Amino acid sequence: MRAALLLLAALIGLAVPSGAGAQAPDAPIAGRRVALVIGNAAYRSVERLPNAANDAQLMATTLRGLGFELVGGGAQVNLDRAGLSRQVQEFGRALAGAEVGLFYYAGHGLQVGGVNWLVPVDANPTRAQDLDFQMVDADLVLRQMSGAGTRLNLVLLDACRNNPFLTRGLRSVGGGLAEMRAPEGTLLSYATQPGNVAVDGMGTNSPYTAALAEAMRQPGLDVFRLFNRVGLQVKRATGGSQQPWVSTSPIEGDFYFAGAAAVPPARVAEPAPPAGPGPAPPAPDPTERLITLAREQRCSLLEVSSTGGRISVSGLAPSRPDWDGFLRQAGATRGIRLSPQAVEFLPAFACEPVDLLAPPVRATRVTAGRLMTLTQREVAAGGTLTLTLRGTGGEAVLLDLFQPDGTVRHVPVPAAAAERRVTVVQPAGSPPGPRLLTALVSPVPLDLGARPTTEPAGPYLAALQRALQSGPEVRADVVTFEVRVPPSPRPPPRTVAGTSAAPSGRCTAVLQRAQLGEALSDADRALLRTGCP
């Protein structure tokens, strides 16, 4: 479950639900727009939030299309405490000279001792004294905005406020969040009203963020009408269980995300068309519908093809329950007949790297096909796996092995060649189970700093996310394989004490007589039972 980080601000203005009325028209707020968008999903010590990273990506894409400058160049996903603090500081600097500042946060949030905290992905407090060192005070964002001189500040919070650390000893968490003093000209929007819990959503995005992104793109909606529309849409989508909330101070001027509505020019009336049915609209392509469904699945790389009216799906899917849900959606789409699928289910540790690399992997497979080929899909612990990298001559290659214990091993790649063969060693004693190999190919090496051969996957993926946002365009591929336990050596055949494994001369003679059907003495039969192998 996700709930809004409810900043109940003590402001000059009033706190109202999203359905409140708008202010009188005023001069529009134009000029430079700056936004910081954060989505924390891959928490390392507590429950992960499936949609938080997706929500941040959707919001970043929407704001960029509406003319906002994004701190860091895009959505900042899965930030640890150092990264979260650094991005807030950069946000404050970027606001200098801007007319509009916007802060969006999706992730865990909680209130302890009257202080509201944004929760980085590496936080794992066991007592209230740990919070100063492991989390970020939400008031820090408002302080950065208050000193920037912007005309309008927007704080949009789609955060989880149930205490994720309850079972880890942190129990002094208050209900809701504490009051905060916001700067003048500020509007704060939350995914739900005080005391309620917001749903994370069954699809790719939360109901709040999906409605917010859609409304932002509609011309003619000032901020008050926009959040009223968002509130009504979320209320309908959740059956009345969730109602977004707004808290605001007086704002001078009108602000439109997509601009004020244009006045349409007068048109000369045209004669009415002749009566009768018009041409039927073209039927939707079921294959395109299925491709859309496939690309909306998190933690997946599904490929859709159509042959003779039958549609095939193959590739990587996140889990059996998620795959079953995909099949139910596909089955509900008219015109789709699925043939047997060749789908491989990804382990949980593979989801974060697959989600990060899915866009360049899809683009690479469309233009150049697969980059990696394995000699086999299974390898014994202590054995080696050989893969071939093709079409990478003269380029930098980053080859990473993601493992079930949450670590990533950086595999050395031989010098540039049109086709490179790489040997991946599986140490003896490696636990059995699936592995994920990822390859990133770029014209120049990505700037990731000095890194150990093996490290926790979380910090590495955060660094890789930043490098992909600011670095050159890359090609990518992923492949899975299985590590198995080597078979135990078979014991040598047992022999009876006092006898040899090879038949003796007497044994041979007795066996020959038995095969010819001759009568055997009691001594011969005893020899066959005990003395002959």
* Arithmetic mean of pLDDT: 78
Specify the biggest β-sheet. Answer: 10 strands, mixed
Oligomer: single chain
Percentage of residues in strands: 15-25%
Number of helices: 12
Summarize the structure.
Helices cover 26% and strands 23% of the residues. It is α/β, with parallel strands linked by helices.
Structural summary, described in words:
The chain is an alpha/beta fold and 533 residues long. It folds into four domains: 234 residues, 3-Layer(aba) Sandwich (Rossmann fold); 60 residues, Histidine-containing Protein, Chain: A (2-Layer Sandwich), CATH 3.30.1340; 130 residues, Immunoglobulin-like, CATH 2.60.40.1930; 33 residues, no CATH class. Helix content is 26%, strand content 23%. The chain has twelve helices and 22 strands. Strands 1, 2, 3, 4, 5, 6, 7, 8, 9 and 10 form a ten-stranded mixed β-sheet that branches. The chain has a six-stranded mixed β-sheet with strand order 15-22-20-17-18-21. It has a three-stranded mixed β-sheet with strand order 11-12-13. α8 links the parallel β12 and β13. The radius of gyration is 32 Å and the shape is elongated. The termini are far apart.
